[in-house]
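Hi R.,

Here are the chain sequences for the assembly we discussed:
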Amino acid sequence: AQKITQTQPGMFVQEKEAVTLDCTYDTSDQSYGLFWYKQPSSGEMIFLIYQGSYDEQNATEGRYSLNFQKARKSANLVISASQLGDSAMYFCAMRPAGGTSYGKLTFGQGTILTVHP
Amino acid sequence: SQTIHQWPATLVQPVGSPLSLECTVEGTSNPNLYWYRQAAGRGLQLLFYSVGIGQISSEVPQNLSASRPQDRQFILSSKKLLLSDSGVYHCAWSEAGVEQYFGPGTRLTVT
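And here is the predicted structure of the full complex:
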């Protein structure tokens, strides 16, 4: 079974500063994928970034980067130059690769990020 | 481009009443489809997924059911709602199991 843990219920950051949202995971699979989603107050889940377990480079997408430390089983999201529109709930998720579990996401509890002006 | 629709957007139903939520995807063929539920202040929990018409897999035991009558249509149903069924229901699609893209969600309140 897979498990995602997000230990920060809430985080605060000043506009234009960087912030790191923590995510640790537990799995016995050798191959898996890690995701981050943003959920604004509208409720829609917005895909941000993906990291494969065999990817040697950390994933980056614009202001988002994923700090992947496989030995520590952590996949922290770094948001650089925070903007007021970044205020939202952020979810870390993972899925196994291959087999009948292919594609099914397991989510963490989420972290509420508040960006102050 | 692909789009995903869910309706209704919000719903208030009494305990014991039936439920039908619909999800449709446009701009793709033979997608994998998923239903998730999000209880208040919690993460998403996978309920059902489907890899093709008529093919439904259930992840957790519950009083909900799902059907896929057409390639790009996914329906979530219940014969009798419970208070614990309240939450936001998210439909998602993916191609070959890569990133999942979510719909706007349906907020269900069971009273």
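Chain A touches chain B through 24 residues (CB under 8 Å). The two ends of chain A are 41 Å apart (CA to CA).

Let me know if anything looks off.

Best,
T.
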